[in-house]
Write a structure and sequence with these properties.
Elements (H helix, E strand, L loop, with lengths): L1 E7 L3 H12 L4 E5 L5 H5 L14 H14 L5 E2 L4 E4 L4 E5 L2 E10 L20 E2 L2 H4 L7 E6 L5 H10 L2 E6 L11 E3 L4 E6 L3 E6 L4 E3 L2 E5 L5 H4 L5 E2 L2 E2 L12 E3 L10 H25 L3
Parallel strand pairs: 1-2, 1-6, 2-3, 6-17, 7-14, 8-9, 8-14, 9-10
Antiparallel strand pairs: 4-5, 5-6, 11-12, 12-13, 15-16
Helix pairs in contact: 1-7
Bound molecules: flavin-adenine dinucleotide.
The site of flavin-adenine dinucleotide has 33 residues, from α1, β2, α2 and α7.
């Protein structure tokens, strides 16, 4: 099936777009986390969201969730690793799954957060964002896993089942990845080293650990990796006032398009993007003579 739209990200931008596409009875898939966005959950107190004075982030997230559930919008809990142009539509790779859509909304949050020096240059040369896709390449080998959230621990355990040795770098409190071949590191990883391929991970104390590969399991994927050819300015997706990016059918909304990083801006841009996608789909239908 080719969906009318694929929405990547379950923060306010993606959810707002989903509501509007649903109201207009479009077929779409919403990919992200069932717990929505870590950034919504983390806010202690939100005072600037219209109509909901003094809510906590958790309360706001619960309100968002109630809203999309009441409209029967399911979330498909997947990380999208890459998007490929298929000519008139796009294919999205998410772990071992594959989805197709005529338009895509990138609502992935602020993008550059956490990327390590050396990482971008070594993507596909030992740096991976997908345990399911690339884990098999590291059977019996030594790898580092940089893990941004407890919800990715099952992927780290999957990798530990394949690799000979895993250096595990949790970026969150109280990790529980227990296996004989997993060493949970207290030192932070500050860089990835290698020329033609990954050779090591640089630690904060100046040491380098020799590894064959590095898996970065984060809440987002670097934009250049996600969609080759996407125009990026100062780390944000370049968009026009309709939230269109430089590639046909590709739209972006929320923190990934630039500051200010705010819930209302994200929700508003998601709304605008959805309406632009509706127009784009109508043009497509006209061109196809439907
Ligand atoms: C502690 C804290 C407090 C804040 N307080 C306020 C406040 O009081 N008021 C205010 O207006 N703003 C506040 N903000 C900012 C606000 O949280 C953000 O501006 C807003 O969440 C941005 O929404 P978004 O939809 O663009 O992205 P996000 O909320 O970041 O959501 C993006 C989602 O996309 C998912 N994603 C990313 N890449 C992929 C992929 N490849 N595949 C699938 N899913 C993917 C992520 O996992 C995430 O769930 C606060 C932020 C923080 C961190």
């Amino acid at each position: 099936m080719i969906y009318d739209a694929a929405i990547i990200g379950t923060g306010p931008a993606g959810l707002s777009a989903a509501l509007n596409l649903k109201i207009h009875e479009k077929s779409f898939i919403l990919l992200g986390s069932k717990s929505l966005s870590g950034k919504i959950q983390k806010a202690e107190q939100v005072r600037n969201y219209l109509g909901l004075p003094d809510v906590s982030g958790a309360e706001l997230a619960a309100a968002f969730l109630r809203h999309i559930q009441s409209m029967d919008i399911p979330i498909v809990e997947e990380m999208v690793n890459s998007i490929l142009s298929m000519g008139k539509h796009y294919a999205l790779m998410a772990g071992s799954e594959f989805y197709e859509a005529k338009t895509v909304l990138l609502s992935t949050g602020a993008a550059s957060a956490g990327t390590l020096p050396g990482e971008d240059a070594l993507v596909g040369k030992g740096v991976s964002y997908c345990a399911t896709c690339d884990g098999n390449l590291y059977r019996g080998k030594t790898i580092a896993v940089i893990c941004g959230a407890a919800r990715f621990e099952h992927e780290a355990l999957y990798l530990a089942g394949l690799a000979g040795k895993v250096y595990y770098f949790p970026l969150y409190a109280s990790p529980s990845v227990e296996r004989e071949n997993v060493e949970v590191m207290s030192q932070r990883a500050v860089g990835i080293e290698g020329e033609a391929r990954v050779s090591g991970v640089r630690l904060k104390n100046g040491e380098t650990l020799a590894v064959d590969g590095v898996f970065c399991l984060r809440e987002s994927v670097a934009l250049a990796t996600l969609l080759p050819g996407l125009a990026v300015e100062n780390g944000h997706i370049a968009v026009d006032r309709t939230m269109a990016a430089n590639l046909p059918g590709i739209y972006a909304a929320g923190d990934c398009t630039g500051r200010p990083y705010q819930y209302s801006k994200a929700a508003g841009e998601g709304n605008t993007a959805a309406h632009s996608m509706l127009e784009y789909l109508a043009e497509l239908e006209k061109a196809e003579g439907k």
